[in-house]
Design brief:
The protein is an alpha/beta fold. It has 10 helices and 10 strands. Strand 9, helix 9 and strand 10 form a beta-alpha-beta unit. Helix 5 runs parallel beside helix 6. The longest helix has 20 residues. The two termini are about 10 Å apart.
Length: about 350
């Protein structure tokens, strides 16, 4: 299995995260991708290749130009406005307020952000653009006939909606990859999100479309970020009715319950008759993850990969979350290895 990687991920090295009423070093950090990259070599998973640039066109198929421009210019505008530190939102258009982007950067941040934990630092835009190129380069390999490819994206992407960032995500790498697969010939594409947190951004992007199925297994939004998305009754609208499948699970869920949800998602994907599969791969389902409440154990992760392989689809894995640093790399590679060996 090829792994696509970019050294530019280190350009995003934020020092600011709002968590539990405190500013702390972010859980999403450069060490995550570097540790996974190292363990891929140690495990002999396959060749690691650098991404190539794909330009803005595939990105603009998912995210509008004004949003892309905002992310490109946000930190520079923040500094020019006389602010210190990293750019972080502090004011949002709440219910009943007028909702359009203000001229001042402080207001723009609130307009385009949906959560306050994610700061924008000087290298955020370049790192996020590189993560998109990682996903698109992986699409190239898949369309050349590879059975599976791993896009080691950082920053992650599944919380990024069409024109919203948050949850450490800026551009939706998995959605951009799925759209690229559609644009390059796949009639129907499925996205399976196995990150602990609901992929609210991916759902938003495809909610009214019937050509991309989105299936997500995640912490019940009554108890888990992003709280306002991922309910079982959210199944799509218009042409997309039935093409969104949410499987929220309660705190403390172990592999038996999680695996049942996975089997239900796999059945839905099989019925959808997808021609390619994009997996939003998060390992924050692990029992020791600091910001998740599932109880999957290390021995469960190879089973996940093997079960996904039963679909028999060309499969692109896109890295999302997972914050138990000591076990992150092993758990991630165990999913990929389980798939590769099936």
């Amino acid at each position: 299995m090829y792994t696509v990687f970019s050294e530019k991920h280190r350009m995003r090295d934020s020092c600011t995260e709002l968590y539990g009423g405190e500013f702390i070093p972010p859980f999403e950090c450069p060490a995550r991708a570097d540790l996974i990259r190292e363990h891929i070599d140690e495990a002999g998973l396959g060749e690691v290749v650098h991404c190539r640039q794909h330009g803005l066109k595939p990105l603009l198929r998912v995210h509008p130009a004004d949003y892309v421009r905002f992310l490109e210019e946000a930190f520079e505008e923040w500094v020019a406005a006389g602010f210190h530190g990293e750019a972080i939102a502090s004011c949002w258009p709440a219910r009943g307020m007028r909702s359009e982007p203000p001229a001042h950067i402080d207001g723009k941040l609130g307009y385009y952000a949906f959560a306050a934990e994610t700061a924008i630092d000087e290298g955020t835009y370049e790192a996020a653009r590189a993560a998109v190129d990682v996903a698109l380069t992986a699409v190239d390999f898949l369309l050349r006939g590879e059975r599976s490819v791993f896009a080691l994206c950082r920053p992650p992407g599944h919380h990024a909606a069409r024109d919203l960032y948050g949850g450490y995500c800026f551009f939706n790498n998995a959605a951009i990859a799925a759209q690229a697969l559609r644009d390059r010939g796949a009639a129907r594409v499925a996205i399976l999100d196995i990150d602990f947190h609901h992929g609210n951004g991916t759902q938003d992007i495809f909610y009214d479309r019937g050509d991309v199925l989105f299936a997500s297994i995640h912490g019940d939004p009554a108890h888990a970020f992003p709280y306002f998305s991922g309910f079982a009754e959210q199944t799509g609208t218009g042409e997309g009715e039935g093409a969104t499948r949410n499987y929220p699970l309660p705190p403390g869920s172990e592999f038996d319950a999680w695996g049942e949800a996975l089997e239900a998602a796999l059945r839905a994907i099989a019925r959808f008759r997808a021609e390619a599969l994009v997996v939003s791969l998060g390992t924050d389902t692990y029992e020791r993850d600091p910001i998740g409440f599932f109880r999957l154990r290390r021995e469960d992760f190879p089973k996940v990969g093997r079960r996904i392989a039963t679909l028999g689809l060309p499969t692109l894995f896109v890295m999302e979350g997972g914050y138990a640093i000591d076990e992150l790399a092993v758990n991630t590679v165990d999913i990929l290895g389980g798939f590769a060996e099936a």
